[in-house]
Amino acid sequence: IPIALDMAKDSNGKDRELKKRIENDNYMSCAVRECYASFRNIIKFLVRGSREKKVINDIFAEVDKHIESGDIVSDFKMSALPILYDHVVKLIKYLLTNKQEDRDQVVILFQDMHEVVTRDIMEERLDWQGDEVDEQIQLFQPAGAILFPTPESEAWKEKV
């Protein structure tokens, strides 16, 4: 994953070359797919608010559509992936410690990840961007919008 992220960061818009380099290494390609699937699974588990679920589901649907059609690397800006990765690593650390006093930091991480994905990676291509956003209530901030701290279980810890 770190090698794939370095390649993405240094791709400088040469997405076809990046795609070719990742797909030429079967282990790297599988690692990237597994990392995405795990990330998706964790995020979908944590997001509980109806507005937040719609936003997250729309993002994943768009990403999945581009994965399916094979044009994700050319249609999205992969050079922003290392920033998203850094946020995910921080989120995982918070999930492992799982302390109530970290909730505000987790909310900020979700907001930062949303911004990186929509503005930097997808470059604001989604239609819903301005539809339901109430300026008074930010995504992920209301109580119950995200499940944190999470219920303690060995299965969850292993997943994280």
Automatic annotation (TrEMBL):
<feature type="domain" description="Callose synthase helical">
    <location>
        <begin position="1"/>
        <end position="160"/>
    </location>
</feature>
<dbReference type="InterPro" id="IPR058851">
    <property type="entry name" value="CALS1_helical"/>
</dbReference>
<dbReference type="GO" id="GO:0046527">
    <property type="term" value="F:glucosyltransferase activity"/>
</dbReference>
<protein>
    <recommendedName>
        <fullName>Callose synthase helical domain-containing protein</fullName>
    </recommendedName>
</protein>
<dbReference type="GO" id="GO:0005886">
    <property type="term" value="C:plasma membrane"/>
</dbReference>
<dbReference type="Pfam" id="PF25968">
    <property type="entry name" value="CALS1"/>
</dbReference>
